[in-house]
Every structure is written in C-alpha cells, then in structure tokens.
Design goal:
Length: about 160
C-alpha cells in the first residue's frame, strides 16, 4: 500500500452543527489526496431514536430533520465529486459510530471535537473519546471552530 492509498474509505460523523464544517473541510483534502470514498453518519440519540426498533416507533420529527440534513451534506459532497454514502443511525453515538465504521469497512474515522475541558467532559462525556476507546480503526480528531458563516446557516430556516 503506497502513501496515497493509505485511506480508501473514511467515516465522518456529523452532528448537525457548525462544527461539521471543520471536519468536512479537512477530510475533503485528505480524501482527494487518497482518492477515498466517504461515509457520512449522524447518530440521532433522542428517546425515539434510541428505541425506534425495540418499540416499533415511527421516525420522529427530529430524526426526519437529521435525515434531511445528512442527505443534503452528502449531496453537496457528491456535487464536489466525492463518492458518498449516508447513514442515519440511532442510539449511543460512540457505539453507533464505531459499529458503522466496522460495518462499512472504513479505514479511518475522522471527527470534529469541541475542545471541552476536563469538567465539561466529565459532565457531558465525549463522543470522540468514546469512539477512540471502542474502535480498532484509526481516529482522526480535528478541533472544530464554528465559523460565523456556518453558524448563520445553521440558524437559517
């Protein structure tokens, strides 16, 4: 395997926030260099998403919005010339991200981090840390810095 084919399939967890732009901008450059395909995944973790299969629930409004967001981001990447698959999962984010990477045969997980400090991570937990501990696949973490442009886009109807 030469350096340019180091990564062939990259999983990118998206959280439907301005932080997504940071990881996507970074990974697009890497994917072009390696000619890698992309898998974008969002893990809905509300009550309905965590119990949809066990209780045979319908997709919640939150999940429908998450699916629309994910499909739009995937379509934008396809327009830019990438081969992209999109997955909407439900449940524990760290567990679902790790499982999706294995199932989709990805060789890199690339995710944005918020840069919480020790106390915030204790209170809120860190999905990135959970993925790092669960997965045998390399994890690239990029510190996200929401831009005013992306923050405005998130708030627009």
């Amino acid at each position: 395997m030469d350096d340019l084919t180091m990564y062939q399939r990259i999983l990118i967890p998206l959280e439907n926030t301005a932080y997504d732009d940071a990881i996507l901008e970074h990974v697009k450059k890497l994917a072009r260099l390696c000619n890698a395909s992309l898998v974008v995944v969002h893990v809905a973790d509300g009550w309905a998403a965590r119990n949809i299969h066990q209780l045979e629930l319908r997709e919640s409004e939150e999940m429908r919005k998450d699916r629309e967001y994910l499909e739009k981001r995937a379509a934008d990447l396809v327009t830019e010339g990438f081969e992209v698959d999109a997955i909407l999962a439900g449940g524990d984010p760290a567990q679902e991200i790790s499982a999706a990477a294995e199932r989709e045969k990805c060789d890199l997980i690339a995710m944005s981090t918020h840069g919480h400090k020790f106390l915030a991570d204790l209170v809120y937990g860190s999905v990135a840390e959970g993925v790092r501990h669960r997965s045998n696949i390399p994890v690239l973490m990029v510190r996200g810095h929401p831009t005013p442009k992306s923050a405005e886009a998130k708030q627009s109807p």
